[in-house]
Amino acid sequence: MEELKSARPRQRFDERSGAAEGIAGFLTPCNKPGYIGSFGPYDVIEVVGHGGMGVVLKARDPVLNRIVAVKVLLPAMASSAVARKRFLREARAAAAVTHDHVVTIHAVDEADGLPYLMMQFISGRSLQQRIEEDGP
Question: For domain 2-124, which CATH number applies: 1.10.490.10, 3.30.200.20, 3.30.420.40, 2.130.10.10?
Answer without folding.
Answer: 3.30.200.20
